[in-house]
């Protein structure tokens, strides 16, 4: 996406976020902040699985539609959504109207709760893949940012084994970036130090 928002020399941001206002707010307020709340993890899993083949900007624009359609990302409610509701969602322009992705969200809600039962929380489970500590790559350029890592490969493989859908390694690495398991803000970005101070 071509940037239409200029860099502020006094407040440098990761260049990827400069496409439109929602991107900037997401970058400044959420991206990279360590998440330990299972409901927030589930929200990002739904949004990221919906992104497959699309831009994150498209998903952010539909985020509130997803919030309404999926019970404010309450995985207990989503896990029990009936087929009749899936049919309704396929007519809802506020989300991505893809049956496989909608059904994956319901499936993943059930698998999500199975992990909670086994590990006490989804947060406990996912943070174990980084040994409970934020990975700080100290990136100097977007060109150095990986699309997948050993950690995301292992996590995606384990999620697939547990029955999750639409959550491959690239998608999972995006989840790790978004929820702060990895700090991939560029070192020159004003948020880099702010997020680093939040690390475990």
Automatic annotation (TrEMBL):
InterPro entries per UniProt: Adenine_glyco, DNA-3mA_glycosylase, DNA_glycosylase
Q: In which organism is this protein found?
A: Belliella marina
Its domain of life reads Bacteria
Q: Where is the signal peptide?
A: none
Residues that span the membrane, as ranges: none
Q: Which Pfam families match?
A: Adenine_glyco
Q: What is this protein called?
A: DNA-3-methyladenine glycosylase I
**Entry's PANTHER family?**
DNA-3-METHYLADENINE GLYCOSYLASE 1 (PTHR30037), DNA-3-METHYLADENINE GLYCOSYLASE I (PTHR30037:SF4)
């Amino acid at each position: 996406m071509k940037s239409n928002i200029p860099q502020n020399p006094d407040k440098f941001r990761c260049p990827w976020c400069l496409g439109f206002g929602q991107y900037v707010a997401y970058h400044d307020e959420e991206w990279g902040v360590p998440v330990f709340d299972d409901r927030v993890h589930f929200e990002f899993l739904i949004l990221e699985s919906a992104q497959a083949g699309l831009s994150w900007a498209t998903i952010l624009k539909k985020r509130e539609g997803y919030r309404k359609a999926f019970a404010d990302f309450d995985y207990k409610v989503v896990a029990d959504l009936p087929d009749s509701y899936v049919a309704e969602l396929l007519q809802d322009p506020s989300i991505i109207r893809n049956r496989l992705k909608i059904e994956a969200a319901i499936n993943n809600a059930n698998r999500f709760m199975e992990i909670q039962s086994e590990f006490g929380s989804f947060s406990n489970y996912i943070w174990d893949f980084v040994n409970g500590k934020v990975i700080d790559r100290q990136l100097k350029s977007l060109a150095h940012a990986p699309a997948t890592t050993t950690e995301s490969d292992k996590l995606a493989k384990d999620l697939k084994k547990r029955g999750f859908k639409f959550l491959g390694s690239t998608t999972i690495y995006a989840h790790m970036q978004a929820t702060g398991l990895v700090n991939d803000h560029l070192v020159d970005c004003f948020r880099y130090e702010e997020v680093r101070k939040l690390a475990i």
